[in-house]
C-alpha cells in the first residue's frame, strides 16, 4: 500500500506532501508526524526509503505507508487523556505518535505477536526518549507493549476509547473488536479490504464509515496445537498515577512555562527582529536649464550651494544606518534545549 504522494527529501517534506494531498488535515496530527522522524524506525541499511509513501517490511518488522498512518490518525480523532489500544503495534511508530497527543494522563497500550518486534519497539522508544527534542516539547504518554495474539485478549480486560488494528480483520472477528470499545469510542481497522471507522454510539449501537480501499495481511489465527488451550493476553492494568509521577508532571509543566516566558521576553513576544523602516530621503538633483535662441541652443547648469552639503549628509546617514543594522544581521545563536539543561 502507498504511493499516494510524492517522496520527500526529509521527514518535513514528506509531511508537507501529505498535507497537500489532504491526508493530514488537523494541526494535532501534523505536529505528531513532524515530531517523530519516520527514518528512526527503519533499519540503517533501508533508511533511503524512509520518506517514500510506501509500506516497508523486513522479517517480522513492518511499517505501513505514511498515507495509511495519516488516515488512521485522523480517523481516530485523538484527544488528550484518552485510552488507546494498538493491535499489532509493530515498531511502535504509530503508538509513539499517538502518545504525543494523549499526554501524561492518557493510556497507551500495544499488543504484538512477535517478541523480537517488541524488543525492536522498546529500543526505538528508548532512543526517542533519550535523544529527541520532541520528547521535551510534548507531554508524552509512553506506550506499553505486551506479547501475544490480539485475538486472545482476556475477556476481563478494560475497554478503550480508541482502538486500531494493523492487520486485516475477518468478518467473523468484527464483533470481538467492537467489544474492546467503550461507548463513544472509535475503532479503526481494515475490514473486507476497506479501512473502516466504527463508532460505538450506545451499548449495542454502532456507526460504520468506509474510509478508503486498502490491502493488509490478515490477522494470524491463534494456534492451540501445542498446548491445546488458549493463552490469554493480559493487558497492563490502568493504575492511578503515583504522587511522584504527578509531581514530575507538574514540575515539567512549570519549567516549560518558565522557558516559554523567557523565550517570549527575549525575542519580543516571539517575533524575530522586526524589519527596520528606512527614512525616505529626497535627493536634490542639479537642475539643467536649456535656452533656445534662434538656431543655437545654450545649456546652463543652475547649482544650489546646499547640494554638496546635502550629499555629504546623505552619505553620513547611510553609513549610520548600516552601522545600526549590523548587529541584527548577525547569525542567531544555535537553538538550546533549555528543558534538558534545567
Automatic annotation (TrEMBL):
GO molecular function, one term: protein-L-isoaspartate (D-aspartate) O-methyltransferase activity
SUPFAM superfamilies per the UniProt record, alphabetical: S-adenosyl-L-methionine-dependent methyltransferases
Localization terms from the record: Cytoplasm
InterPro entries: PCMT (IPR000682), SAM-dependent_MTases_sf (IPR029063)
This protein's UniProt keywords: Cytoplasm
Region (Disordered) residue spans: 303-342
Acidic residues bias spans: 310-321
Comp. bias intervals (Basic and acidic residues): 322-332
Gene Ontology cellular component terms for the protein in this record: cytoplasm
Main location: cytoplasm
One Pfam family of this chain: PCMT
Protein family according to the UniProt entry: Belongs to the methyltransferase superfamily. L-isoaspartyl/D-aspartyl protein methyltransferase family.
Name used for this protein in its record: Protein-L-isoaspartate (D-aspartate) O-methyltransferase domain containing 2
Amino acid at each position: 500500500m502507498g504511493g499516494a504522494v510524492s517522496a520527500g527529501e526529509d521527514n518535513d517534506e514528506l509531511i508537507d506532501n501529505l498535507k497537500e494531498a489532504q491526508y493530514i488535515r488537523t494541526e494535532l496530527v501534523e505536529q505528531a508526524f513532524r515530531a517523530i522522524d519516520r527514518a528512526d524506525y527503519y533499519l540503517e541499511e533501508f533508511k533511503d526509503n524512509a520518506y517514500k509513501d510506501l509500506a516497508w517490511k523486513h522479517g517480522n518488522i513492518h511499517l505501513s505507508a505514511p498515507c495509511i498512518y495519516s488516515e488512521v490518525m485522523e480517523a481516530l480523532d485523538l484527544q488528550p487523556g484518552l485510552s488507546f489500544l494498538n493491535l499489532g503495534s509493530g515498531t511502535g511508530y504509530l503508538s509513539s505518535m499517538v502518545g504525543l497527543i494523549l499526554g501524561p494522563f492518557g493510556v497507551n497500550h500495544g499488543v504484538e505477536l512477535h517478541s523480537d518486534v517488541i524488543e525492536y519497539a522498546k529500543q526505538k522508544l528508548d532512543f526517542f526518549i533519550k535523544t529527541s527534542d520532541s520528547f521535551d516539547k510534548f507531554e508524552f504518554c509512553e506506550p506499553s507493549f505486551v506479547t501475544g495474539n490480539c485475538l486472545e485478549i482476556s475477556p476481563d480486560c478494560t475497554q478503550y476509547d480508541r482502538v486500531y488494528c494493523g492487520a486485516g480483520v475477518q468478518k467473523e472477528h468484527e464483533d470481538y473488536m467492537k467489544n474492546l470499545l467503550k461507548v463513544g469510542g472509535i475503532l479503526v481497522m481494515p475490514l473486507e479490504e476497506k479501512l473502516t471507522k466504527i463508532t460505538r454510539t450506545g451499548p449495542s449501537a454502532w456507526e460504520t464509515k468506509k474510509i478508503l480501499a486498502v490491502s493488509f495481511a490478515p490477522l494470524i489465527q491463534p494456534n492451540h496445537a501445542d498446548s491445546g488451550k488458549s493463552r490469554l493476553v493480559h493487558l497492563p492494568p490502568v493504575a492511578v498515577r503515583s504522587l511522584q509521577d504527578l509531581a514530575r508532571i507538574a514540575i515539567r509543566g512549570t519549567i516549560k512555562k518558565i522557558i516559554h516566558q523567557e523565550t517570549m521576553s527575549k525575542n519580543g513576544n516571539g517575533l524575530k527582529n522586526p524589519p527596520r523602516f528606512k527614512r525616505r530621503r529626497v535627493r536634490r538633483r542639479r537642475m539643467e536649464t536649456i535656452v533656445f535662441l534662434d538656431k543655437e541652443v545654450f545649456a546652463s547648469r543652475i547649482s544650489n550651494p546646499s547640494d554638496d552639503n546635502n550629499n555629504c549628509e546623505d552619505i553620513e546617514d547611510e553609513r549610520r544606518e548600516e552601522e545600526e543594522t549590523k548587529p541584527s544581521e548577525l547569525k542567531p545563536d544555535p537553538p538550546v534545549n533549555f528543558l534538558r539543561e534545567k
